Amino acid sequence: xxxxxxxxxxxxxxxxxxxxxxxxxxxxxxxxxxxxxxxxxxxxxxxxxxxxxxxxxxxxxxxxxxxxxxxxxxxxxxxxxxxxxxxxx
Length: 89
Known about the structure:
87% of the residues lie in helices and 0% in strands. It is mostly helical. The chain has one domain (5-88): Up-down Bundle (Methane Monooxygenase Hydroxylase, Chain G, domain 1). The protein is elongated. The N and C termini lie far apart (57 Å).
């Protein structure tokens, strides 16, 4: 356990950010799952609408340092590819 005052403060700060980050990560996952659920039902319009909501949330997670920019770009690309595949099918 932390003994010095500055180590105790860092432990408090780390716990606060851990809780905040967990909530934000959960929020990102929720919106990605909404896109995937819409794709699974085969509803292209609903999937596109869900993607338009999810994309800025992924970008915001990058700006907050929650996920790496390449992970967000990869995720958006894969979601968009699934939506495009709906049109082809």
